[in-house]
């Protein structure tokens, strides 16, 4: 079966376009970028849908979500993002144990064909108790997980399907890559990628012709030169999670409420110390960058996103959101564009790199 191609008012279409940015096709004239080898055009800014999944936990009670959310406000925020030209939404089946996919699917509704939807698989969870119960890297699970995600999202295909097990065995990942190629051929997904901070693992997926992205951590305090160099070499999009350092680059200083992963930060989540508030060392570094990042009328968050765009033409940051106000602030960064070369050099100087 031929892979589905969804026409989307020029922004998320599958037509091949030159790498980099353009000013074509969005509701506000904001820049767009190419999703790696796929040729799919998306808004330069994506929206990450982890936070709107609400509360979830692992078997020990460790929070895995961002606390309580208002689903109606989440829907309004997605609608506002669409109106402001955002055409790329990234979620995962495990966010809120399926809840994020359900909210996103409901919000998109009849506008599904205007956007590019990315989701992830690899974790196993109980939807009723919102509890992560394990992970499954078997080839058989790929199809089970995709079928469930399609149902929750209310769609017949996923545009970008991503492996969510960052440290999966490379040999097993090669089998999963081959399954993804089958799914592309069946029209159930358009492209695939791996959410991992390891270039060697990303390279395993990149051997597949329809691999088009690697998702990895990137923000002004956590650079990823090896991943960005790999994305350039392999002609992949670099989809950037934690672009605002889990809220720290949006100005967050206070501790998080119970049920929020930042209230009991795991080892892989730096910047929040013991969960009582932002790590003073991180605050100091952020404050040293504030004047540069807020230049040209930007907010701190907008300047942080502008740094990512200037870092590489392959980057597509996906900040999280839980309100219309956050959606408006993040989307507003597109009108300002990337930082200038001089501003980038000054940030490197201030950070001593």
Automatic annotation (TrEMBL):
EC number assigned by the record: 1.1.1.-
GO MF annotation: an example: oxidoreductase activity
Keyword set includes Oxidoreductase: yes
Keyword terms of this UniProt record: Oxidoreductase
SUPFAM superfamilies: NAD(P)-linked oxidoreductase
Region named Disordered: 1-32
InterPro entries: AKR2_Oxidoreductase, NAD(P)_OxRdtase_dom_sf, NADP_OxRdtase_dom
Domain NADP-dependent oxidoreductase: residue ranges: 45-350
Pfam families per the UniProt record, alphabetical: Aldo_ket_red
Keyword field contains Oxidoreductase: yes
Composition bias, Low complexity: 9-30
Protein name, as recorded: Aldo/keto reductase
Organism from which the protein derives: Streptomyces sp. R39
